[in-house]
Design brief:
Elements (H helix, E strand, L loop, with lengths): L15 H11 L2 E6 L4 H6 L2 E3 L1 H9 L5 E5 L2 H10 L4 E3 L8 H4 L3 H10 L3 E6 L4 H5 L3 E3 L4 H5 L7 E5 L2 H11 L4 E2 L5 H4 L3 H10 L5 E3 L5 H4 L4 E2 L2 H10 L4 E5 L4 H8 L4 E4 L20 H10 L8 H18 L17
Parallel strand pairs: 1-2, 1-3, 3-4, 5-6, 5-7, 7-8, 9-10, 9-11, 11-12
């Protein structure tokens, strides 16, 4: 039992879905769930989607409370965009390996060592790193935003070296890459992926750009989680191999029950190692307690929030500009 949160025997016998619905109304709350959350959390959420899209949708509601079933940097982004709302995260330990790879003090020192570079930073980072950045990008907006930056401008890209490397290959644009990775997307096995493709020779592979190059080299589509979901709806075949966190498949199966979706395997030949351990920390019980107690709560000092919001605002401005392609896929990677 978690005594601090009151999770354990005290919840025995509760109809958690009914209680969450009751608290949602009482608190005037909106519940958000990322595509990588457990199916039961996706199914009760008001909105399911990518992290930034969820935060923007929540900001447009008249909700007093945002319950974000995702990871900490996502809930912080929601607070940056909705400072007047209470934002709770079911488990404050739900972090991110990319965020962990980029401590703000080290990133600040890295920036100081390269004063002629601007910082183009992936949204999977802390509020403090966002505040140290010039422009934030998402996996769906990165190519469009990078295409607007003058060719003679030197760029630091962090914290995901795989996304940065992918952009370098697609746009032929050299950048100084921070050496962070997503532990989930690093876990895919090229050998096992090729075995799976041999078993399903007509099935395309859709991959997230957080995957390393040896996985992206075999992808027929590279894009954000939302982009992969859209590709699943549009490709003409009946079987798709999916190289990202496997809980996205829940939305695919709901939307397209006539198609077959197969998670790309890890080194042991299955997908268990590719389930995000941070996302998995959120549960129905913890969501209920978060709505009941309005804790754990995201708090951001106002000066820090405003500084971080500048880089987010710059991203939104550039992402809406009528130039470029604005998507990472579909595209074949050079050498694939």
């Amino acid at each position: 039992m978690d005594a601090r949160n009151g999770i354990g025997g005290s919840l025995a016998g509760l109809d958690l879905r009914a209680e969450i619905d009751r608290l949602r109304k009482e608190r005037n709350a909106v519940i958000l769930a990322h595509y990588y959350q457990k199916p039961e959390l996706q199914d009760l959420a008001d909105f399911v989607g990518d992290s930034l899209d969820l935060s923007r949708k929540a900001a447009e509601t008249d909700a007093d409370v945002i319950a974000f079933c995702g990871v900490r940097f996502m809930a912080e982004t929601a607070k940056i965009l909705s400072p007047q709302k209470i934002v709770v995260l079911p488990d404050m330990n739900a972090g991110c390996s990319l965020e962990d790879s980029c401590p703000p003090d080290q990133f600040a020192a890295f920036r100081a060592a390269h004063p002629d570079h601007i910082a183009l930073t992936y949204i999977n980072c802390s509020t403090e790193v966002k505040a140290l950045s010039d422009i934030i990008v998402t996996s769906s907006s990165a190519e469009k935003i990078l295409s607007q930056i003058p060719l003679d401008q030197k760029i630091i890209f962090g914290p995901d070296r795989n996304l940065g490397g992918y952009l370098t290959r697609v746009l032929k644009r050299e950048m100084l890459l921070w050496p962070g990775v997503c532990i989930v997307h690093e876990a895919f096995s090229e050998t096992e992926l090729l075995k799976l493709r041999a078993q399903h020779p007509g099935a395309p592979i859709a991959a997230h750009p957080e995957c390393p190059p040896h996985i992206l080299d075999h992808a027929d589509y590279v894009g954000s989680t939302r982009g992969i979901l859209d590709f699943a709806k549009s490709f003409p075949g009946d079987t798709l191999i999916v190289a990202t966190e496997p809980h996205i498949i829940h939305q695919m199966e709901k939307a397209l029950p006539e198609k077959t979706f197969i998670g790309a395997p890890g080194a042991d030949g299955n997908c268990n190692c590719n389930i995000c351990p941070y996302m998995a920390l959120n549960t129905m019980e913890k969501l209920y307690v978060a709505l009941r107690d309005l804790e754990p709560r995201i708090e951001i000092e106002e000066g820090l929030r405003l500084q971080a919001k500048k880089s987010l605002d710059r991203m939104l401005e550039m992402a809406s500009a009528t130039v470029g392609q604005g998507d990472l896929g579909p595209v074949r990677v050079a050498g694939a």
